[in-house]
């Protein structure tokens, strides 16, 4: 071998042959990867390196096959040419002028090499704005390293090119783009995961999450251990046909070679692969990923997805294994094992006999199971919470019944709050949510090292729970107890608990041992014995509104306005009852606890919802002219009107007003006209009416009897009005101001009371009307875009002395009539969704029918 003088000067001649051996394979800075790991280091020995060194004095070490040595005389095609390296040694290169050229064959690529005396690098762009983004790593004779961003369409001077007296520099690495080069293949959701000299396979399981192998990013691939948090170095995922996406968070699964990696931006246009529910043995399964199995002298990339069929012969709780598997080579760590198209496991280790390099030992294969990780994966991939405790990070050595030690917090921002268990909290497997944590109702609890939410500001809580009987408790309805709480000094700031098979949530008014509690109670059966349910609590500090949600449904609410800040620990499975005592220990199983320092759920808008909890409330004026709001604080059948929590919202109102959400903010406002004919809108400001901010809607309304509804596609409320003199009925689309009214009824409507709502379930606003004789009539809307009244049908009689409002009070999606009779009884006529009503009932407050409703108007 003939060496250039420059090589001799740098003292590398004696190490030349040895450096071309397998020992030189890993990229600079990457740790060696030994069998049986399937982790790849992302590079392969450059084919024909010895011959190239002999002919051109260019030492090519390793790369990923996307930056290739090229003939500098290669004809130019398009706007991309060759990357050109100039050196001070004319013996380097094929043309005798100290020049070496390379072709960049992909958006991303890497080449490890040694070219001494480099003073200039020319980008491969042939006109302004073209060329690959290239980073060059160099080292000077003094041992100093430097990294240079190469001008894509120009010249970049380095070493002696910047200063003739500078120390000569050796080019060590060329890198194009970021992350691995995108692959090709039929499985769009299977991509490459690469970082810090490692390259593996990963699978998209949610728009912003991939599932792969911990070993790919662990310090020792054969000891797959990794801390939760941001990656130690730049880490990327690429999918077929997609640019690289940065990974910004890693959530390893304790006890097995599985990790969830969060993508900085969600992937569009690719359907995630769901997790399987079984990982069978003795059945042929498929696996797909990126490996070295197909490396040749001319194509040594791992861009093409490679598939294999494997039949595992043995299984443990966390692994699948076989002693004789298919050819599986490095790069397949994290590759999905598919059972019916669903992800059952990820490949972890293999004997790799028959793989190109290094030489394998056998054809054994090991995969880490994922078929039991649905709860864990869903909890993390769907979390937008500040804190998420999956309660599913079962250690590898633990089994069902093993005492819980600590539970990790997937806190993507801020500081994590791991939970520490006491005796009585044990792991449970084999349930719907598995693993989960069982609590013994005696001593079992988990506690964080501090508060999870700021209790005098907005916050939200969520948990999955299944109450069970522990021992011989009688009756079964006593099962349950406290699920979540946060400590004050002498009591809990809040407590979420199950009692009598119903969810309850309460906030204390002060930090004393026996405080006053503001409590929301969900319907009976909302937390049935032996049944999983998800409970969520939202608290809006400005209004004091607490909403209790069960399985995504808004089921109860309460107003809590006495604020104080609890700085003690978040607690799972019990609550604080005194300065040094706990109580309310939970009996059952819990999974996936989450907290937010904001409101995580917002109720749907309803035009009669005055307090913002998503349920229509009852508004009325009493004989003194005072205006009252009776909150609808439960969806439990007849128990829908709270008398004890009524709020006075005005004085001097009398009659002549209607309720509607006029300004579209989700809170019911009031419209009222006076004797002067001016129509005013009184906006709802956080549950209260303010005369100072009322708006003038229009004038001339002393001649009309009006009501409000919505009969077109514009969400703004419409007005409906009867001209009292001639009896014509008009529709004012989108309100009075500037609207062109439409006559929808001829003369004869004088003295009628109208209620414009959808009464037959066709998503069109109909008219229900009470005539002068007290008969109730249903007028269906036959129009697709506005309102055209069809033939009326008789819906009832005897309504003369009733004061009536229309709304969905029961929360079943059908319009009801709420009425106070001449006998001063409050009745609800439940809508059937067909223009008719079911058997009337008297709504209860706290389970009690309230008599003597002395009112002048109802809305």
UniProtKB/TrEMBL annotation:
Keywords, comma-separated and alphabetical: Disulfide bond, Signal
InterPro entries, per database record: ConA-like_dom_sf, FG-GAP, Integrin_alpha_N, LamG-like, Peptidase_S1_PA, Peptidase_S1_PA_chymotrypsin, Trypsin_dom
Gene Ontology terms, MF aspect: serine-type endopeptidase activity
Signal peptide coordinates: 1-24
Record-annotated Peptidase S1 domain positions: 158-382
Biological process, per Gene Ontology: proteolysis
Keyword DNA repair (UniProt): no
Name of protein: Peptidase S1 domain-containing protein
């Amino acid at each position: 071998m003939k060496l250039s003088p420059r090589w001799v000067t740098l003292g590398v001649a004696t190490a030349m042959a040895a450096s071309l051996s397998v020992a030189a394979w890993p990229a600079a800075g990457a740790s060696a990867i030994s069998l049986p790991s399937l982790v790849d280091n992302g590079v392969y020995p450059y084919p024909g390196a010895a011959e190239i060194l002999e002919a051109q004095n260019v030492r090519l070490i390793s790369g990923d096959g996307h930056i290739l040595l090229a003939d500098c005389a290669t004809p130019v095609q398009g706007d991309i040419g060759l990357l050109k390296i100039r050196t001070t040694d004319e013996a380097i290169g094929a043309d005798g002028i100290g020049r070496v050229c390379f072709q960049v064959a992909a958006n991303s690529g890497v080449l490890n090499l040694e070219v001494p005396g480099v003073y200039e690098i020319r980008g491969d762009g042939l006109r302004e704005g073209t060329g690959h983004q290239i980073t060059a790593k160099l080292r000077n004779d003094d041992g100093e390293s430097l990294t240079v961003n190469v001008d894509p369409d120009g010249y970049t001077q380095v070493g002696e090119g910047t200063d003739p007296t500078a120390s000569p520099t050796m080019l060590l690495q060329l890198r194009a783009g970021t992350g691995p080069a995108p692959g090709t293949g039929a499985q769009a959701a299977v991509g490459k995961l690469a970082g810090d000299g490692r390259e593996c396979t990963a699978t998209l399981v949610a728009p912003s999450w991939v599932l792969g192998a911990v070993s790919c990013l662990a310090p020792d691939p054969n000891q797959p251990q990794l801390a939760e948090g941001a990656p130690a170095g730049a880490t990327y995922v690429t999918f077929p046909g997609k640019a690289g996406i940065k990974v910004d968070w890693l959530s390893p699964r304790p006890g097995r070679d599985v990790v969830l990696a969060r993508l900085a931006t969600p992937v569009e246009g690719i359907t995630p692969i769901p997790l399987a529910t079984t990982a069978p043995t003795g059945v042929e399964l498929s696996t797909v990923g990126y490996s070295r199995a197909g490396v040749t002298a001319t194509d040594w990339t791992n861009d093409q997805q490679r598939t294999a069929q494997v039949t595992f012969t043995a299984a443990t709780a966390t692994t699948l294994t076989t002693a004789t598997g298919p050819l599986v080579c490095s790069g397949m760590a994290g590759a999905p094992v598919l059972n019916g198209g669903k992800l059952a496991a990820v490949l972890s280790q293999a004997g790799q006999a028959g793989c190109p390099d290094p030489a394998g030992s056998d054809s054994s294969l090991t995969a880490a199971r994922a078929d039991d990780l649905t709860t864990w994966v869903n909890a993390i991939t769907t979390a937008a919470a500040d804190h998420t405790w999956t309660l599913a990070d079962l250690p590898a050595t633990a089994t069902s019944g093993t005492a819980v030690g600590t539970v990790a917090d997937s806190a993507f921002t801020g500081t994590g709050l791991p939970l520490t268990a006491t005796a009585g909290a044990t792991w449970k497997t084999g349930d719907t949510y598995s693993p989960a944590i069982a609590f013994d109702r005696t001593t079992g609890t988990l506690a964080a090292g501090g508060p999870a939410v700021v209790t005098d500001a907005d916050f939200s809580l969520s948990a999955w729970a299944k109450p069970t009987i522990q021992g011989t408790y009688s009756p079964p309805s006593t099962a349950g107890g406290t699920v979540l709480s946060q400590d004050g000094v002498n009591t809990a700031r809040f407590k979420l608990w199950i009692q009598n098979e119903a969810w309850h949530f309460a906030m204390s008014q002060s930090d004393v041992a026996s405080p006053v509690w503001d409590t929301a109670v969900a319907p009976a059966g909302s937390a049935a014995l032996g049944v999983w349910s998800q409970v969520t609590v939202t608290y809006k500090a400005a209004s004091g509104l607490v909403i209790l949600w069960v399985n995504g449904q808004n089921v109860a609410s309460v107003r809590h306005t006495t604020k104080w800040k609890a700085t003690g620990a978040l607690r799972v499975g019990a609550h604080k009852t005194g300065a040094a005592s706990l109580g309310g220990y939970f009996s059952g199983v819990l999974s996936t606890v989450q907290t937010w320092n904001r409101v995580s759920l917002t109720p749907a808008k309803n035009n009669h919802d005055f307090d913002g909890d998503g349920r229509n409330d009852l508004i009325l004026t009493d004989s003194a002219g005072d205006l009252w709001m009776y909150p609808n604080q439960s969806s439990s059948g007849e128990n829908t009107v709270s008398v004890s929590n009524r709020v006075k919202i005005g004085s001097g109102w009398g009659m002549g007003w209607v309720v509607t959400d006029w300004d579209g903010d989700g809170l019911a406002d009031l419209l009222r006209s006076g004797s002067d004919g001016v129509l005013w809108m009184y906006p709802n400001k956080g549950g209260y009416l303010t005369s100072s901010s009322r708006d003038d809607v229009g004038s001339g309304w002393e001649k009309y009897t009006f009501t409000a509804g919505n009969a077109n596609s514009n969400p703004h409320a419409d007005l409906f009005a009867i001209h009292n003199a001639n009896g014509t009925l008009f529709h004012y689309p989108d309100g009075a101001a500037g609207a062109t009214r439409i006559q929808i009824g001829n003369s004869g409507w004088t003295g009628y009371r109208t209620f414009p709502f959808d009464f037959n379930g066709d998503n069109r606003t109909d008219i229900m009307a009470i005539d002068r004789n007290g008969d109730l009539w249903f007028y269906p809307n036959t129009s697709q875009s506005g309102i055209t009244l069809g033939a009326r049908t008789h819906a009832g009689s005897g309504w003369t002395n009733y004061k009536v409002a229309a709304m969905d009070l029961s929360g079943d999606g059908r319009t009801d009539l709420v009425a106070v009779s001449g006998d001063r009884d409050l009745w609800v006529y439940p809508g059937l969704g067909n223009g008719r009503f079911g058997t009337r009932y008297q709504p209860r407050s706290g389970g009690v029918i309230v008599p003597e409703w002395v009112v002048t108007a109802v809305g």
